[in-house]
Specification:
Length: 173
């Protein structure tokens, strides 16, 4: 069995197109599986062991990627990133520059921000582990994995059906 598989890989160009597609999609699915495992086991996005902190400060600069804040108490500058899967930034509240907001964050990842009790940034998670899980789910290529293995199975099935076709004129009628 293994020998025939290795032999067929050596003669890839001579395989029927459906089997070539099956092998290629299987290889892509295997690669996506390894990428998926790597994302869930080795990437921590700098959130591992982080504690939720808060600060109040004036927004000096804001864009879709984050904000630069001047701490109201100490005058220090803090850069907070807006990361998909961790924070949902509401739009339509006008420019934030110059506004004094209250922030909660994990390391440099913004969780939530409020202006006079109104939420402008909504946290999608409550602690480091939840945020890490949410981030991993967003980054994992699950759709590609399913499509690749599904394509492989479909091609193998079609190839098998094509090989079973009865010879013409061999029917009863």
């Amino acid at each position: 069995m293994i020998r025939s598989v290795l032999r067929s890989l050596r003669d890839f160009a001579t395989l029927p197109p459906l089997l070539q597609a099956a092998w290629l999609s299987f290889a892509i699915g295997l690669f996506m599986t390894l990428l998926h495992l790597w994302i869930f086991n080795f990437v921590d996005y700098g959130l591992d062991g982080a504690n939720v902190e808060s600060l109040s400060g004036k927004v000096l600069y804001a864009d879709r990627g984050g904000m630069l804040i001047e701490d109201a108490d100490s005058g220090e500058y803090t850069r907070l990133k807006v990361i998909r899967g961790i924070t949902y930034l509401r739009s339509g509240h006008g420019p934030l520059r110059g506004q004094t907001l209250h922030f909660t964050y994990l390391r440099d990842a913004l969780l939530s921000c409020t202006l006079d009790g109104q939420e402008l940034c909504i946290a999608q998670c409550a602690n480091a582990m939840e945020c890490l899980d949410s981030r991993c789910e967003r980054e994992a290529p699950q759709g590609m994995l399913i499509v690749a293995f599904g394509t492989s199975l479909a091609c193998l099935g079609l190839h098998g059906l094509r090989r079973r076709k009865p010879a013409s004129g061999a029917g009863i009628f």
